Amino acid sequence: MDTIVITEFMDEKAVESLKKEFHVVYDKTLVDKKEELLKLVPDCSAIIVRNKTQVRGELLDAAKKLRVVGRLGVGLDNIDVKACGSRNITVIPATGANNVSVAEYVMAALLMLARGCYQSLDDVAAGKWPRERMVGGEIFGKTLGLLGFGGIARDVARRAQAFGMTVVAYDPFLPDDAPVWTEYGVTPVSLDDMLARADAVSLHVPLTDGTRNLFHAERIRSMKQGAFLINTARGGIVDEQALADALISGHLGGAMMDVFGKEPLPADSPLAKAPHCLLTPHIAGVTHESNTRVSAMIAEKVAAALK
After folding, report:
1. Which candidate in 67, 197, 282, 293 is catalytic?
2. How far apart are CA 102 and CA 93, in angstroms?
3. Strand order of the sheet with strand 23-26?
4. What is the DSSP string of 185-235?
5. 98-145 residue pLDDT tens
6. Any bridge partners for residue 71, and if so which?
7. 137: how many CB neighbours lie within 10 A of its CB?
8. Marked catalytic residue, from 263, 288, 289, 300
9. What is the enclosing helix (H) or strand (E) of 25?
10. What is the spatial distance between Cα 142 and Cα 197, in angstroms, rounded to a whole number?
11. Residue 246: which pLDDT band, with cuts at 50, 70 and 90?
């Protein structure tokens, strides 16, 4: 019987479905138990991970029987895809299963940053009444720029347009005459043009050699005065010190960051004291509903691949 090792949290119903056909080792804390994990992987046919487990190097060398890697999410930067391919190991991401949760997170970020009211909650609870200071703005009539125009970005575009926003996007892999632009009513632009026009920019690209540190100090300075930056993609795309500097100087009006170059975010991060900066622990794609969808999809696809 094939063995499946699950190293991070997964919906219990999906785990139970796998147990009906396979020997399953499920411990959502295995990701933090390196030695125990390395003892388990030599006998496993499949491993199911989220974004923290590093499927590369020592782990791959130890996993002599590994045939399938299931990813409870879509980013693959924690998986050595090339090495897996050379060993005939199938890598399966949960493409599309968490689109809704990320798209809703981006909309929540846009609304929170525009209104700014989150900054004075303690004052109101203390009996103060800072109405004038808490007056924020609207997203209606503003321009949203999307870096990348894949499935999640397209879901964001639909929602932003419903709020009355104009949407532009930069995606070098989509030609300007691709039908999808017309289908979604989104204007393709250059990266420089998008940054100059957008009142808010949302990132939707993987972390690659081409996107690493893409938002460096100079590029952040090229963004519109008072613009917002939202990153639900991957840490490492944004220079965190440069972002903090832009927030402190007032060049950017705010940021909502869900991903970071190092996770958990170090306590001495420059973002910790940056104004108008909302920080969340890599949860944009994780809701109760998306966890159910992602887990069910990966359980089904991993089982099919093994069979």
Report:
1. 282
2. 16
3. 23-26, 3-6, 46-49, 68-71, 90-93
4. T-EE--HHHHHHH-SEEEE-----TTTTT-B-HHHHHTSPTT-EEEE-S-T
5. 999 999 999 999 999 999 988 778 889 999 999 988 899 999 999 999
6. 49, 93
7. 13
8. 263
9. strand 23-26
10. 10
11. very high
Catalytic residue among 50, 71, 234, 293: 234
Tell me the two tokens of residue 141: 């009539």
Residue 276 annotated as catalytic: no
234 is catalytic: yes
Residue 6, helix vs strand vs coil: strand
DSSP-derived letter for residue 284 is T
- 70 within 8 A of 49, measured Cβ to Cβ: yes
Q: Are 194 and 168 in contact (CB under 8 A)?
A: yes
Task: Indicate whether this model's pTM tops 0.90.
Answer: yes
Tens digit of pLDDT for each residue in 94-109? 999 999 999 999 999 9
**282 labelled catalytic:** yes
- Single-letter amino acid code for the residue at 23: H
Under 8 Å between Cβ of 29 and 53: no
Cβ-contact 143, 166 below 8 angstroms: yes
